[in-house]
Amino acid sequence: MAGSGKFFVGGNWKCNGTKDSVSKLVTELNAATLEPDVDVVVAPPFIYIDQVKSSLTDRIEVSAQNVWIGKGGAYTGEISAEQLVDIGCQWVILGHSERRHIIGEDDEFIGKKAAYALSQNVKVIACIGELLEEREAGKTFDVCFKQMKAFADSITNWADVVVAYEPVWAIGTGKVATPEQAQEVHAAVRDWLKTNVSPDVASSIRIIYGGSVNAANCAELAKKEDIDGFLVGGASLKGPDFATIINSVTSKKVAA
Ligand code: PEP
């Protein structure tokens, strides 16, 4: 079963940038010619979201890279979903491998964050993915399904969720998954959603791939039927490359 959702490309800027480099990237993105039938979202560091919101074309939506688990208050250093809404930030990335494996966020914590963000009308890019040793041990599906279950235990409104499959061994390493490797997991996750959530959610949800996607490899990946777009780290910091990745939707159309 292939997905029926609109192509989606997100740019995760991670902990990169200065006011000047953000301004340059926004200028490049504003000047880019983008295919119309793609949802595009960029995720700057929190402190630059306001700058990006006030200078970036409305064609591109803005995401945070994290959010607090509940209502704001005495939580030093955190940012709440209500605050994201206040500055017009419509999305948040949750479950990114860097937050799972470097910061130590666990499945349940991530699931609860997703539920709270959705309750405040902040849409969620829900990341899953296996470590290299998990893939080598034949546990890729087990790991991805366990991470999906944690999201499913908390999420009721899947209309505002995009799932990002990001094998940890492919993130920031230059070792992109082959189109076949990505397609295999995307199809399995879609099937898991069909059985464990609903056939409607399974067919309408976008399942995007992340991990060393660049301007050169995006077209082949985009052709796969269950790859509904990309989450892009390094290459999203270069406006023209990010635009090429967004426009890889054209190779999907040719393949269809
Ligand atoms: C990411 O961090 O979401 C990511 C996919 O990074 P990169 O494209 O740099 O591998």
Characterization of this structure:
- Homodimer.
- Keywords: Isomerase.
- InterPro entries: Aldolase_TIM, TIM_sf, TrioseP_Isoase_bac/euk, Triosephosphate_isomerase, Triosephosphate_isomerase_AS.
- The chain is an alpha/beta fold and 256 residues long.
- It has a single domain, classed as Alpha-Beta Barrel (TIM Barrel).
- The protein is 44% helix and 16% strand.
- The chain contains twelve helices and eight strands.
- The protein has helices at residues 19-31, 46-55, 81-86, 97-103, 107-119, 132-136, 140-154, 179-196, 199-204, 218-222, 239-246, 249-255; strands at residues 7-12, 38-43, 61-64, 91-94, 123-128, 161-165, 206-210, 229-232.
- The protein has an eight-stranded parallel barrel, surrounded by five helices.
- Helix 3 links the parallel strand 3 and strand 4 (91-94).
- Helix 1 runs parallel beside helix 2 and helix 1 crosses helix 11 (239-246).
- It starts with 6 loop residues before the first strand and ends with a helix.
- 44% of the residues are buried.
- The model has no long low-confidence stretch (mean pLDDT 97).
- The chain binds phosphoenolpyruvate.
- Phosphoenolpyruvate is lined by residues 12, 166, 171-172, 210-213, 231-235.
